[in-house]
Queue: 2 jobs
Job 1
Amino acid sequence: MILGAVLLWRVLLLVFTAQPVPANDAYFFDGAAVNSVQHGGFANPSLIRFTPFSATNVFCAYPPVYPLAMCGWMHAAGSGVLSSMWFHLVIFAGYLAVLAQLFHRWQLPGARANWAALFLLALTFDDRPDTLAHWFGLLALWGWLSIDRARWTGWFPALGVTLAFWTNPEVGLIYGGVLGLLALVKVFHRQWKFPVFPLAALILLPPLSVMLFKVWQPELWAGFLEHAKQTPSLTPLRVFVLNDWLKVLRAIPGTLCVAVVLPAHLRRENWSHPLFQAVGVMTLASLGIAAGAVTVFTADWVSLAKYMQPLVVGAFLTWRFPAGTVLPRRWVATLAALVLLAAVRAIGMSTWGAACAADMDRAQALQAMRTHVEHYSPGATVVFSSAYLYEASAMNGITALHEDWLHPIRAEKTELQADLDALTELKPAGMVLVQYDYYRRFQPVLRELLAHPEVVTITLTNCAHVPPPDAYHAMQRVLQHVAWAPVIVDFKWQEPSGRVGSGRSPVPQN
């Protein structure tokens, strides 16, 4: 029942408020499909300053399964931003369908499944390849759990993991590790003979496919490395960053609760139970992701663990409180509190986000963008947030660039200085930013530019009448990116650019 209710909420949210608003890097993944429909050619011209090969030849900055799937969808359903949003909702529905099959496979009672499904409210940013990759991963898990029932499941899980790997490499590695550990646990408890062929296929198929691709398409592999070398997954070691820990706590509170309780039950006889095996392995994988997110990987990595959270919670509750038993009141209260914590953004989208949509909805925001951009001179360069690029890329007479990728990533420059240098070199006629991108990244950049009227004059128009959460520093890490209203910036460049320093003039808003 809750699986259906969550899906219905997502449909209503999209129909009436056009949420979730595409995130800052959504067009990075979708731009090639959009360009293929609008202009021909599977490339993403908005990335010309960041990955020239993917911008001008063929998009290969990321594994191809998701961009190709989006390309097929857009050739059938159109290249607008709303088409992309519906595509992600369809993928989410497919993910829910496989999740329901796993609930059925484990015979989760209705009440346990409903509590587990409530943690799906933590999944609100899904406009990346991650949801599709997890869909493949869950299909692989479903096949792996049936490996002792049908011969065909020997290769099916390996194929699912490989497709997940070619959609998002990190997700593919996660599910490959989960399935391998599940197999070893079952072999240890003599529930399986050692699955030589399935395990060999699981281990060898992804790297062999990469090796074949490198030999078959060396230019495309070089294009992939062009992006990968600039955005490595590893970061300098960090441990005591409070915001990272809070992000983990909000993302997977259900899994963390299970992890706290589970050590008291780590007895050998419990590991022979299929549900306990699943809980133990997936909890271990989730904790590994969380540990990486607060130490050596980017903090956003923890979002990859959200997709396994309903399985962890549902399987644990069913093992700990079998069918016919009633959940103790302390567990009901604990689960309710954890669901509310995980659903903070979902609640914000349904309230504050709805208010922002009533102030200026998607159609009004895109019309304001088009009306303003049409007044720029032919050939003008304009910088856009992802949410507007789907429509802006179809406008003739302008060069549309992605705001998040205006320059190569260089360690010797701060992001602020790199953005300043990129803007003063490009001299764009204007920028059209969503509220999130303006407050998150470009407000301090524009402050610096305003301190140099000898270089540029700036006119800024904020179309939002209802201030979004991004406008309040205290709310920026609680609720983000729920408004369509654009921030429109016009530049009048006075002379050839020099290096802009560190002025501190405030940015006017109207």
Job 2
Amino acid sequence: MLKLYHAPRTRSVRIYWLLEELGLPFELETVQYRPPATVFSQATPHGKFPVLDDGEVVIFESGAILEYVLDRYAPGRLAPPPGTPQRALFLQWVHFAEATFMPPLLDILRHTLLKPEPERIAAVAADGRARALTTLQFVERALEGRQYLPGPEFSGADIMMGYPLGWAANFGLLTEDLPNLRGYWQRISSRPAFQRASGPSRGRSTY
């Protein structure tokens, strides 16, 4: 059985959400988040969140886990077929979520919440907000006439995008001049699987 090492509010929410959407049986191992002394300081295999244990395969990085699970356990679900133009757009948004969207949000997070107050640099947080808003405006345009990314149906790319969008909402960045994004966030965050994954942790459970 699949085993997911999870801590609330970390990127493991993405994989918890994915597994709930797919209805796959899995074991949830909830691990206390540690303020990171290093990149690999969590009490999980590989020292990060998330980690998925699938017997001979023990894998980290949420985007890689999402692609692995879809390819191995859910072919034809939540992703276009490999080799198609639609698959290319799907992969674009899967990787955009972490490579482009998350970095400015992490600058805000580190320099407003995570770092000890004497180490916080207001200019870094402000620059993060400016870059995040530019990114959000790009996604706002991409959503014109679309329900989802890459559209028209909900996919794993929307799961990847949902995590940074949640942080953007918490930081007050989903402003009224972003109606497409606000509607998109409402659609994906109201999904029952998202609600289960982002709610209070239920500890070690089997589904």
